[in-house]
């Protein structure tokens, strides 16, 4: 990555040397252990460099020594905010390599639960993003709704955060007894709550002045860097894997893709809020049309995909999370590579931040919605 | 009054001890007052934190402190004990002496101001200085020195940035704060805080009615002066970790904390005194007339506390509702909006007084009477003045939007767009449901 040069001769305001500020890895709003080295002129960012790797656990290497079914729980630890989505990309990759016929009920349940996870992830993003910009109350309101989702996860999977939600070929078990009722209740209550957040933020002049025109990235740049998810859609590119390459039961769902215009922080904020509404729509439909039947495919004793390589990706809450898998015909993968959305979205940070103030760096880190577990792997 | 017999008893006792009457009035009583006020203020400040936590909890759908004592009522005391017993850590590279003394400057400057605040009538005032308001402004601006010194001496970049921000912020908002008070001073014709209350009392009005713009300007610049949200940039936790007090711990940190809350109480108290009539309340004088002098004072103090607490509540409310400004926006608001508004307000207030004065005697109309301290307006005069106050608000708003019509932040709501919803065509599925 780009290196920050500590120059002391360059002409700056008041002819003073730039200040190099080390933000993180222990900092309240770098969302984990991201370290950002800022070169400041007063408070204006002249240059910055990201230093990552503080949470590196060698996931991809570990995966080479685990059996295909054992890898799924590791994938939850990539983006621990969206563990259900991450789990899905792994099992779907394996299933598709093996050509396993997953029953429709499992597909529908997967759709419902990953969409719930998308809402949970976006809520946590909203909470921390608002907190970074100084609106503390939104944090607790958003976490209150996220709690409802986590309760559903706890009852369904037995865990709240890293759920190990899926198994190769389907689901560990069918939906629990009150699943329909709980999800329905959430779906009915959620829009009201979302409107509540909007009353605090969307028209708030301070919020507008902190987000409009901040961290602008054009559609061309966004595509060139490889942004995905809301960060890409905020710049006006209509691209969503749920539509363009449907997986799970998305092909049966009717929903729209929110697209921004200016590619600034405010557009990405609106896009994510609208995405939550669309997710709710998807859950509503999937719950309505939930088919009966088994939730598991018939599996061989040992999961062994055929020799070859395969790439599959899904639309995670943060963007395209992909999995490239090379199988050598044994019970272990030969090589696994994750396409991490947060890592690639983070590459836009420097371009977005230069010329802005320190306070905007925090807002931009927030708007990129990064999770260090996934960046460092 | 039996309740206040101890005061007389103490007076007699001191006289018996051979202290002269002068010594008692000028030395013993002030000391007792100071001790009492400092203790009470410290308690008030401690419970202001408790209230803030409870109020924020109420706004955020949670309970707040509940464990220490009933409804967590002893929480501030537990917190104080915890902070007292914590390690007082001084960074190795810090400038030790400045690092030592900065918190004391902060606390002292916040507490000294209380000496001139009229909490109530008569003995509830420690010192009725005839330049009271000037002293408040002067001493509270020393507080900024503490922040700069703390930020500088910590030898930490975050603390330095916090100190720099606070110096810029407090210097620019002090101007707006001072200017916004001048409008009210035109009516009070005195700088003594007791005098301002008395002037409002004799005119039977709260100056907030004559000076709505001045009151709003004072409240806003007061928040900025106190480094409270949405202007809490010097300690913006999400950017600067903890700003100027990043390196402080234990009691020294809590001194800054106390200073912040004390300064907040000061601004609320000054706003109450100047704009909300201080301890003055219509029925308070009845007690004095019926001869219950001490009860009159106590009632006055209570009225004062209630008004101040309402302003404090407003501050808490703002803090937990609004996001934080950015540094340059803060400067914009200070220099482009608040200071021009305050200047316009001064001109408009003077003009309003001039008009009311000119109308005096016009066709036998009686509007105004100039007193030694303050103005007395007749009912007609009051109505005219209040109308002028409200018109002043609008005029200020119109003038400022003309001045700042090109400013980015002013046009934000115009810039607000909606996102569009796209129904993308469906691609080839990666997985066929039921395949």
Brief description of this entry?
The complex is a heterodimer of chains A (377) and B (435). Chain A is of the alpha+beta class and 377 residues long.
Question: What's the layout of helices and strands?
Answer:
The complex is a heterodimer of chains A (377) and B (435).
Chain A: E1 19-23, E2 35-41, E3 44-51, H1 59-64, H2 68-76, H3 83-98, H4 104-133, H5 136-157, H6 179-201, H7 205-211, H8 219-225, H9 230-233, H10 241-244, E4 257-259, H11 265-288, E5 308-316, E6 319-327, E7 333-339, H12 341-346, H13 349-353, H14 358-368, H15 372-376
Helix pairs in contact in A: 2-3, 3-4, 4-5, 4-11, 4-14, 5-6, 6-11
Chain B: H1 5-16, H2 21-59, H3 75-85, H4 96-112, H5 132-153, H6 157-188, H7 193-203, H8 207-210, H9 212-225, H10 237-240, H11 250-275, H12 284-289, H13 293-319, H14 327-359, E1 368-370, E2 375-377, H15 379-403, H16 412-415, E3 420-422
Antiparallel strand pairs in B: 1-2
Helix pairs in contact in B: 2-3, 2-11, 2-13, 3-11, 4-5, 4-11, 5-6, 6-9, 6-14, 9-11, 9-14, 11-13, 14-15
């Amino acid at each position: 990555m780009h290196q920050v040069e500590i120059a002391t001769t360059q002409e700056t305001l008041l002819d003073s040397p730039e200040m190099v500020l080390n933000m993180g890895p222990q900092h309240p709003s770098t969302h984990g252990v991201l370290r950002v080295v800022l070169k400041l002129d007063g408070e204006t960012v002249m240059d910055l460099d990201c230093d990552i790797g503080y949470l590196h656990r060698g996931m991809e290497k570990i995966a080479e020594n685990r059996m295909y079914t054992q890898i799924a729980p590791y994938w939850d630890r990539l983006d621990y905010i969206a563990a259900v989505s991450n789990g899905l990309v792994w099992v779907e990759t394996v299933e598709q390599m093996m050509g396993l016929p997953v029953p429709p009920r499992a597909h529908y349940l997967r759709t419902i639960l990953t969409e719930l996870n998308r809402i949970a992830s976006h809520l946590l993003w909203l909470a921390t993003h608002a907190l970074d910009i100084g609106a503390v109350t939104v944090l607790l309101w958003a976490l209150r709704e996220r709690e409802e989702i986590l309760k559903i996860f706890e009852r369904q999977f037995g865990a709240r955060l890293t759920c190990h939600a899926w198994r190769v070929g389907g689901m560990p078990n069918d939906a629990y007894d009150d699943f329909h009722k709980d999800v329905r209740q959430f779906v009915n209550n959620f829009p009201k709550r979302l409107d509540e957040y909007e009353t605090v933020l969307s028209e708030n002049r301070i919020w507008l002045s902190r987000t409009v025109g901040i961290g602008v990235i054009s559609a061309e740049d966004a595509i060139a860097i490889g942004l995905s998810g809301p960060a890409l859609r905020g710049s006006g590119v209509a691209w969503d894997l749920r539509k363009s390459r449907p997986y799970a039961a998305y092909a049966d769902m009717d929903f729209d893709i929110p697209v921004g215009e200016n590619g600034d922080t405010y557009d990405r904020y609106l896009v994510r809020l609208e995405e939550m509404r669309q997710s709710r729509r998807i859950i509503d439909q999937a719950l309505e049309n939930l088919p009966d039947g088994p939730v598991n495919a018939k599996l061989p004793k040992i999961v062994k995909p055929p020799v070859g390589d395969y790439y599959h990706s899904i639309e995670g809450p943060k963007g395209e999370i992909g999995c490239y898998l090379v199988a050598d015909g044994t019970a272990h993968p030969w090589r696994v590579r994750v396409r991490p959305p947060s890592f690639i979205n983070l590459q836009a940070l420097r371009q977005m931040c230069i010329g802005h103030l320190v306070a905007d760096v925090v807002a931009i880190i927030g708007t990129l919605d990064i999770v260090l577990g996934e960046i460092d792997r | 009054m039996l309740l206040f017999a101890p005061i007389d008893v103490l007076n007699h006792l001191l006289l018996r001890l051979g202290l002269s009457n002068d010594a008692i009035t000028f030395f013993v009583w002030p000391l007792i007052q100071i001790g009492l006020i400092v203790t009470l203020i410290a308690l008030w400040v401690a419970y202001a934190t408790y209230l803030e936590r409870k109020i924020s909890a109420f706004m955020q759908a949670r309970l707040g402190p509940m464990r220490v004592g009933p409804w967590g009522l002893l929480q501030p005391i537990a917190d104080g004990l915890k902070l007292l017993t914590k390690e007082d850590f001084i960074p190795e590279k810090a400038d030790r002496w400045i690092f030592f003394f900065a918190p004391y400057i902060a606390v002292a400057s916040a507490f000294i101001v209380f000496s001139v605040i009229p909490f109530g009538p008569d003995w509830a005032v420690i010192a009725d200085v005839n330049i009271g308001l000037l002293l408040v402004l002067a001493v509270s601006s020393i507080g900024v020195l503490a922040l700069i010194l703390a930020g500088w001496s910590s030898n930490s970049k975050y603390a330095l940035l916090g100190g720099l921000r606070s110096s810029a912020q407090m210097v620019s908002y002090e101007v707006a704060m001072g200017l916004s008070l001048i409008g009210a001073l035109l009516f009070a014709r005195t700088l003594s805080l007791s005098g301002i209350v008395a002037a409002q009392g004799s005119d039977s009005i709260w100056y907030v009615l004559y000076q709505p713009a001045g009151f709003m300007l004072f409240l806003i610049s007061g928040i900025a002066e106190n480094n409270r949200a949405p202007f809490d940039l010097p300690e913006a936790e999400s950017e600067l970790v903890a700003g100027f007090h990043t390196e402080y711990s234990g009691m020294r940190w809590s001194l800054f904390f106390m200073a912040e809350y004390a300064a907040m109480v000061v601004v609320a108290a000054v706003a109450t005194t100047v704009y909300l009539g201080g301890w003055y309340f219509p029925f308070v004088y009845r007690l004095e007339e019926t001869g219950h002098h001490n009860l009159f004072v106590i009632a006055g103090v209570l009225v004062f506390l209630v008004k101040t607490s309402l302003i404090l509540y407003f501050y808490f409310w703002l803090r937990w509702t609004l996001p934080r400004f950015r540094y340059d926006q803060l400067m914009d608001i200070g220099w482009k909006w608040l200071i021009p508004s305050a200047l316009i307000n001064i001109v408009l207030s003077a003009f309003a007084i001039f008009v009311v004065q000119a109308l005096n005697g016009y066709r036998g109309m009686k509007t105004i009477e100039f007193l030694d301290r303050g103005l007395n307006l007749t009912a007609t005069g009051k109505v005219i003045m209040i109308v002028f106050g409200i018109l002043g608000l609008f005029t200020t708003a119109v003038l400022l939007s003309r001045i700042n019509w090109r400013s980015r932040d002013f046009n934000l709501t115009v810039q607000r767009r909606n996102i569009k919803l796209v129904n993308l065509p469906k691609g080839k599925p990666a997985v066929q449901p039921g395949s």
